[in-house]
Amino acid sequence: MTTWLRNAWYVAAWDSEVDAAPLARTICGTPMMFYRKLDRSVVAMRDACPHRLLPLSMGLREGDSIRCKYHGLKLGPDGVAQEMPMKSKAVNRRVCADTYAVVERHRFVWVWIGDNDRADPALIPDLWPCSRDGWTFDGGYYPVACDYRLMIDNLMDLTHETYVHSSSIGQVEILEAPIETHVANGHVFVTRWMEGVDAPPFWRGALKKDGPVDRWQICQFMLPASVMIDVGVAPVEAGATLAEHDQGVRGMVIDFMTPESETSHHYFWGMARNFDIEDAGFTARFKAQQGGVFAEDKEILEAQQSAILNNPDMKLSAYRIDEGGVRSRQLIARAIAAGRQMEEQA
Fold it and tell me: How much is the pTM?
């Protein structure tokens, strides 16, 4: 029984990762390949030739089509055979590879897992800071050898920053500030407000001034596997509040966890920000710095997954700080159960 939701949109790649050459990536247990046609639209296809199952990502591009590198079966971008291995044989159009609905939005290539006729682009999570005027957005990708839900737990409980990210964004006040967790409109929110604190190194540099600040962290989980974290600082005298906080410097950490297997996932990370948006050099430097922060998470979570597998007689414990992750997992489990019930009734 899988741990991820079917009939949902998942991030398959950054827009820059998909080009004319096929990109192979296993999404929710299914080997897929992605490539761009001549008009730059994206094809998503099962990465297995319907003849002898050689990965089609090893194939040869011919126009908008792909030719298997083993015996030469040629498939169109719709997955349907265009030419048989023996060119003298009539084309059997019943020979085809599965294809998947795909949409580009918010700098990501999204693929629909499940029934193609239910692939409604309106269901793509609203990662609004990635596309809104007055904001800029960039990020990166890590393959992570752990259950995607462990990363969700991590992102919905930022108390770990004090120890895991002590040199960049962590500070003791994170442990001291009270947190509030609630569910609204099918999303889970965890909020933390730190009043009159010293800004950690990154935020002090972004604000470009010293002095006490008000700092906020608002984590938001959205199905099937995305987390946005509204973060920033404002000078105390600016009068920022948890509800209104554009007075200082504000960013939105963007995270999408696409399952690969039960114990591995594709982690797409980045940050949208509303300050220094024209400074391309800062964007590149910050992307490298953020990549270092998330590499620390990757190390911790892969070790945690290994420990889970090595201690089958033990279970994860949940304290108050884990409530955001617990509720996110509950939403996932309910959505999976509801989807399974719909399929059984169909």
Answer: 0.93
